[in-house]
Amino acid sequence: NFFKNRQALWALTRSQTKARFAGLKLGVWWVFVIPLAMAFCINAVFVLAFKVDMPHYTFFILSGLIPWFFISQSVSESTNAFSSNRHMLRQGVFPREFIPLAAVLSNFLIFLPGFFILIPFYIVIQPAVFLLLPALAFLILFMLVFTLGLGLIFAAVNTFFKDTSYFLSTGLMFWFWMTPIFYSETMLDFPYRWICLLNPVTYYVSAFRSILYEAVCPGAGEWILLFLVSLIFLGAGCAYYFKNEQEILKKT
After folding, report:
1. If we measure between CA atoms, which residue out of 223, 232, 219, 214 comes closest to residue 63?
2. DSSP labels, 181-202
3. Mean pLDDT to the nearest integer, 82-100
C-alpha cells in the first residue's frame, strides 16, 4: 500500500516542505541559522561562564543538537497533523497515515542539508569521520524510522486528548534537558543517569556524538539497541494508529 501510493506521499511531503518556508526571506537558511545560533549561545555560557574545559565544545553540542531538532520538530508538527488537515483526512484519496508521516518526512528533507553541511567540519577535526559515513547513514535511517513511529503515536493520541499538543510544548522543554546534548550521560552518576537511559532519544544522540565528535563507531550492542528501539516505536505507532483509525476519523 505504501509502495502503491508513494507518489502521493512524496507530493504531500514536498508540499509541506515548500509551505514551511513560503514568504521567509532567509528561506531554507533558517535550517542552519537556528541550531548554529543556539550552539554558540550554549557554548558561550558554558565555556565562558562555567569554564567547561572541552576541546571543540561547539561541535560537541551540535552533534546532539541537530538530531534533537529533527526529532522534536517532527513530533511537534505530526502531533497536530490530523487536526490541521481534517479535509484531507476525510477525503481518503490516499492512506490517512500519510498525513503525520509526511510531516516527519518534510522535516527530514529539511534536516538533511543542515546536517550534511556540517560533516566537512567534523572531518577536519576528526579525519576518521570520513570512514564512518556508511555507519552514519544507517544511524540516520534508524532515527527516521524511530521518529516516524513517534509521530504516528502523538498524532493519534492528540485526536483523543486535545491537550496533548499543549502538554507537548512544555514537555519538550523537559525532554530537551533530559537528553545529553550539552553534556554526556557518562558525566552523570547513578541514579541520575537512569533519567537519560530511560530516554530513547539519548541513544541516538550518543551514537551521533560517537561517530561525529569521537570518530568511533558504536559497538554491536548499541546498534542492536538502536535497531530495536526504532522497530518497537514504529511498530507501536502503526499498531496504535490502525487499531484506532476509525475512531480518529470520527473525532476529527
Report:
1. 214
2. SSS-GGGSPTTTHHHHHT-HHH
3. 76
